Amino acid sequence: PFESLYVNTRFGRTHLLATGPRDAPPLFLISGVAGCAPLWRRQLESLSTDFRVYAMDIPGQPGRSDPNPPSFLNEDYSDWLLDVLDDLSIERAHFAGISAGAWIAMRFASLHPQRTRKVVMLGPTGISGARLPVKIWLGRVAQKWKNADVLQDDLTARSVSSKSPGGTFGTFDRQLARAMALCTRHYRVDRSLGIYNEATGKVNIWAGLLVLRKFFLPEKDAVLRQFAVPGLLVFGEHEVLYDPHAVGRKAQKLMGNIRVEVIAGAGHAAIYDRPEVVDPLVIEFLRA
Description:
Elements: E1 3-9, E2 12-19, E3 26-30, H1 41-46, E4 52-56, H2 76-87, E5 93-98, H3 100-111, E6 116-122, H4 134-141, H5 148-154, H6 174-186, H7 189-192, E7 196-197, E8 202-203, H8 205-216, H9 221-225, E9 231-236, H10 244-254, E10 258-263, H11 270-273, H12 275-287
Parallel strand pairs: 3-4, 3-5, 5-6, 6-9, 9-10
Antiparallel strand pairs: 1-2, 2-4, 7-8
Helix pairs in contact: 2-3, 5-6
């Protein structure tokens, strides 16, 4: 069983799905762009034996939080997490994030180690440069966004003709692909990224380019060296954005106490693709 609750932040109300013993160590789950709390449906069950789990709807993203997104171009997301912790009267917590959510968790831990226990980073952006999958996005996703059924197929491995599963846009989990397709079809990603100008009714192209830079260029080495808490990096072997082995080596060189795992038969969303493998890794790491 889980409960739906709201906390107050400077960006409005944030909705959480919470489960697990109230006196267990708190663990916050942070989705990537166009994600939401229910995407962690399997983890809400598997992780809640050992932790008080909070799956988060990020403000401005799909879900029940207020439509007031933090900015990727400053420390808004770290400030947002501080507000969540403070409103729940939590001094220190574990964090697990996927994709841009992993970058949010990593950045928060670097800025606020005193509020952070351990961090799990699943297919993170921000550590190394990433490949922008232009052919896949423009040729498949952007042209078919109006048809969620077709888009769902194009977000899964079986529908993409390529030499390896690495040609997929990111996941082998068909339920997740369906959720992503519906978000892409019905949700304004430009608004969720804070690059849509409500006054003019147009996308701020310059702001959009700066956000893309955040997603696909790495943090400065000095920022990565600030990361001082224990961290677990989890990649799928078929990660589409970068070479997971190379990124893992860079992280271990710059970020200190980092453990790296590469999961066979998984793409960008390894914890969604293979929860039976990744969930026990997360539990073991956080409990150690």
